[in-house]
Batch of 2 targets.
Target 1
Amino acid sequence: MAAIDGKLASDLSRLTTEIEELLKVTAEHGDERVAATREHIATTLKQAQAVAQEFGKEFSETAERTAGAVDNYVHRHPWNALVVVAAVGVVVGFLLGRK
């Protein structure tokens, strides 16, 4: 999951950089339509960056709460957790063995 998150962050960063480069290159054009489009793209880019930052913060907070809840459950019910892990292992082993 961390690899996917890293790739997504990398892709978004690269896209942001490329859009900013495009905005700089088109700054030289005096056409009103180009200027209006540039302004719209810049606004949309800023909004997307804000949404991405908020999503990242919410995702981190949710992940921390979930990890805390799982940790508490495992400490309160260690045998139940062991049974669940063993059952998942049996199912995965069965599915891998079917090849």
Target 2
Amino acid sequence: MPQFPRSDPVLSPLDRRTLCQNRLVNLAGQTSLPLFCALIGRLDLLLSVDTGAAHIGAAHHVRQVVLFGPVSPAKYGPWQNPHARVLRAASGLMKDIAVENVYCMVRQLRR
């Protein structure tokens, strides 16, 4: 369970109790970009597709698993983050990434 200081100005707009009691919290549409970036920087692990969230996680050096579709992970993947792992199916289709592979990679990074 994450522990946040009571006077944390970043989390003041959010319900700290909800964030601390739930392992998964949907904050879609409830954050600003600065708050979104700050929250990603506090994650234990980020599971994301190849979007801006993955790049923000890489900038914060967050442990992350990034799922890639047809674009090149070498060109567009998390940059300079030794804690990043990339998964891409040989077909280049995200639907072909096996759930078991994602689960295995997440477990490896959580150790």
